[in-house]
Amino acid sequence: MSAWQWARVVLAAISAVFVMASTLWSIFDVRKDDRLGQTTTALWLLLLLAVPLLGLVAWLYARPRLGRHTDNFHFKKLP
Question: Residue 68 to residues 29, 63, 71: CA-CA distances in angstroms?
Fold first, then answer.
């Protein structure tokens, strides 16, 4: 194999690891989000497993729009 073929193999492996890691992160993030109902969680998980990159982008887009977490820090206003 030439150097260019090895570079393509390494880049493909790095890409595959990135996709798998980001998919796993998004699956765990969906599972721990208590703002979602059982059906909505199942639909998100199906989307993430069916089309990992599209599901990840959709989850990253929809997650902040679901509402604010109740455990956010509340800063006092200074007089």
Answer: 15, 10, 9
